[in-house]
Amino acid sequence: MIIDDLIQGTPEWLTMRHGCCTASRLNDALAKLKDPKKESAARANYRKELAIERLTGLAYEHYVSDAMWHGIENEPLARNWPGSKRNRPRHA
Fold first, then answer.
1. Can you tell me the mean pLDDT for 15-36?
2. CA 90 to CA 14: how far, in whole Å?
3. pLDDT band at 92, cuts 50/70/90?
């Protein structure tokens, strides 16, 4: 879901995401092992992070690389780039 009135990285945006499984971490949420009775470390760790966020109301701190910061800072440019999905006319 895209909510246009919240700016990425703001306290309001982070609060909205507390305890929610997000697309960027879906790979961890769906991680499986060959043995279906066991939980992968990635899935278990992500489950614990979400539980901590729900219980404390605080966002779990994550590493942000230079490339990630570049993407965050330039997202408004990309959203408004001619031909982007958001700028294409909608067909009925």
1. 90
2. 30
3. very low
